[in-house]
Specification:
50% helix; mainly alpha; 270 residues
Length: 270
């Protein structure tokens, strides 16, 4: 029947559904007539065992390949300043140039660092494209939340990414509720953390991210918001106190100004 190879590739434990089956354990001579009567349910079990084995082998292969990409990315990141915005391994593994190698290469083909050379050569451009896409997501979040709150400036275009760098733009992590400026929000750990609910999920993507302990940036779209409470109001007061324009002054310009401020509420001569 051609199932000898499959039997050899499975352990005694995984073969238990077959070896413990009533039709197999039944003490009787296995004649051609009896085999013809019992073979269909047994073949069905073998087909299911093969399907599970191939799924396990594929997951192990993909896990090994994505770990290789994670190592390559770590080495790449060491060549840049710590302030450089670099996506996490889950995002990089999801880029087509990497994903096709990881997922579409036959499991019997050995993949090495050299296999990813062309993809790694393109990584700076791929990161730029990733950054543009994430910036667009952040602009969308700003527009959604400020419009709903009625606080959007009339001078700002809905597609204007300069909003990201304004001194008054403060994002909020919806996981830890910390206020976070741009571009730091792009590398905030909570936004890429693997959800606890995914740890028991069978979907391949979730399992691979569990293995990496990393997920795509704001994957479900519910981890990043805009801080609309006290901090942006305080930031606006500071910009105004410095005599600068709320709609154009960036966080970088405020840093360069290096102004010294004092709280009048707790002012003291001593």
């Amino acid at each position: 029947m051609g199932w000898g190879d499959e039997l050899d590739k499975n352990s005694r434990c995984t073969l238990l559904p077959l070896s413990a089956h009533a039709l197999v354990k039944k003490p009787q001579e296995l004649t051609d007539r009896i085999w013809n009567n019992i073979k269909q349910p047994l073949i069905k079990i073998l087909e299911e065992l093969k399907k599970k084995r191939l799924a396990v082998e594929r997951f192990a292969t993909l896990k090994k390949r994505q770990n290789l990409v994670a190592a390559l990315l770590k080495a790449y990141a060491r060549e840049w300043p710590v302030t450089e915005v670099i996506p996490g391994p889950a995002d990089v593994c999801s880029m087509d140039e990497f994903r096709t190698i990881i997922e579409d290469t036959d499991v019997n083909v050995e993949v090495s660092g050299e296999t990813f050379k062309q993809a790694m050569d393109r990584l700076p451009q791929l990161i730029t494209e990733w950054r543009i896409a994430k910036d667009a997501e952040l602009v969308h979040i700003i527009n959604q939340e400020t419009t709903a709150n009625g606080s959007q400036s009339k001078s700002q275009s809905p597609n204007d990414r300069t909003q990201l760098e304004l001194a008054t733009t403060i994002f909020q992590c919806k996981v830890c509720e910390a206020p976070i400026s741009y571009p730091r929000i792009l590398v905030h750990s909570c936004v890429r953390s693997v959800r606890d609910s995914w740890r028991y999920h069978d979907e391949l993507r979730a399992r691979l991210w569990q293995a990496l302990d990393d997920a795509s940036w704001n994957y479900t779209g519910d981890r990043v918001g805009i801080d609309l409470k006290g901090r942006p109001a305080a930031a606006r007061e500071i910009v105004i106190a410095c005599g600068l324009d709320l709609d154009t002054t960036t966080a970088g310009e405020m840093d360069d100004l290096d102004v010294r401020l004092e709280c009048l509420g707790c002012h003291s001569e001593f």
